Amino acid sequence: MQTVKAVVSLAKNEPATVTNINVPDPIKGEALVKVLSCGVCQTDHHYVQGGVGDNYPYLLGHESTGIVEAVGEGVTNVAPGDLVILNWRAVCGECRACAKGQPQYCFATHNATQKMTLEDGTELEPALGIGSFAEKTLVAAGQCTKINAELTEDQYAAVGLLGCGVTAGLGAVLNTGAVARGESVAVIGCGGVGTAAIAGAKLGGATTIIAVDIDEAKLARAREHGATHTVNSQQEDAVEAIRELTGGFGADLVIDAVGVPATFEQAFYARDLAGRLVLVGVPAPGATWTIPLDEVFGRGGSIKSAWYGDTLPSRDFPMFVDHYLAGNLDLDGFVSERISLEQVNEAFETMKTGRVLRSVVEFK
Predict the structure, then answer these.
(1) Domains of the chain by residue range
(2) Given CA atoms 239, 241, 247, 248 in this order, what sign does their dihedral have?
(3) Domain 2-163+330-362 has CATH 3.40.50.720
(4) CATH class entry, domain 169-306
(5) Identical fold, 2-163+330-362 and 169-306
(6) Cβ(305)–Cβ(279) under 8 Å?
(7) C-alpha 200: how far from its chain's center?
(8) How confident is the model over 261-303, as pLDDT tens digits?
């Protein structure tokens, strides 16, 4: 058992608290990880707001790099000293998705068996089964994806973002949307996930990449990550603009990175006939869409949601790191500021302004 400093959400809509927690030594199937970096993600703030559940207290944080410090019995995929990216899809290998050869959809992903606790023994619920706004965290060994590439300390923060938001956007285009070379892609919403989708479209060989947002600063940033065209949907009709930029037809692939009914409808009608729509923005509970069923039938194509960008961490994380080191994927551009653990609440407020892609906690 070790006592470390961490960020915990004790009650709904209250500021997160920096406090000491107890982290058990790993048992069978578990790994103890010394955290090096952790991105501040919208999902963590959803926990604070009660948007994920009511199982307080929550140990926040999940977009991380770390060094494996110890492993429990039977762990073979990582060893002490390994550099890892933490992931929240530790595939079980046994559920019906895994049995069909689709582990990226695993329906029974593993988390650590033991619970980390407050100093008084109160059990913590780790965000996405990870809980890495902490100097050390306990996870299922399968939540550790080993990275063999040589990285500098300055690169840990960027690479750790592959643990969630950046991968969700990249995967929405490359995996769920299956972009092909020469295709057109439109991305509605240019926050962190949407910007990653734009980077994914560039990586996948799309030649027309259209960024849609209401914020000119976000649109400018989208161009830096690969957008060939931008549309301010407060100033012009997004659907008509996308059609005009694609020969009057609509895009081959449209990504809704917002997840509200209005943007979903825009994405639906901005597709070419037989085009694809991928929803990666997380909708609010109870959100509905009212597109006529004959329109769904008549336009053809596909409508999909992207679960973690249909990512298989063991396959995709090392590949994305290789692209980063080769200069094909600008992960550094997603790190807007580097902060301390004590600045997480401030980072939540900054995140609301849209001025940052990611604030990243660095552990020295």
Answers:
(1) 2-163+330-362, 169-306
(2) positive
(3) no
(4) alpha beta
(5) no
(6) yes
(7) 13
(8) 999 999 999 999 999 999 999 898 889 999 999 999 999 999 9
User: C-alpha angle 198/109/192, rounded to 5°?
Assistant: 20
Please provide the DSSP assignment of 101-159 as one string: T-GGG-SS----SS--EETTSPBPEEGGGT--SBSEEEEEGGGEEE--S---GGGHHHH
Condensed to tens digits (0 to 9), the pLDDT of residues 209-222 reads 999 999 999 999 99
For residue 90, count CB atoms less than 10 angstroms from its CB and return exposed for 0-12, middle for 13-18, buried for 19 or more. Answer: buried
Q: Which two tokens stand for residue 229?
A: 């065209």
Token pair, residue 151, equals 């990285």
Determine the Cα–Cα distance for residues 245 and 236; give it in Å rounded to an integer.
13
Enter the tokens of residue 262: 């209005």
Pick the closest to residue 186 from 268, 304, 260 (CA basis): 268
Count of other CB atoms within 10 angstroms of residue 269: 17
Amino acid at 139: V
Interatomic CA distance for residues 153 and 170, integer angstroms: 24
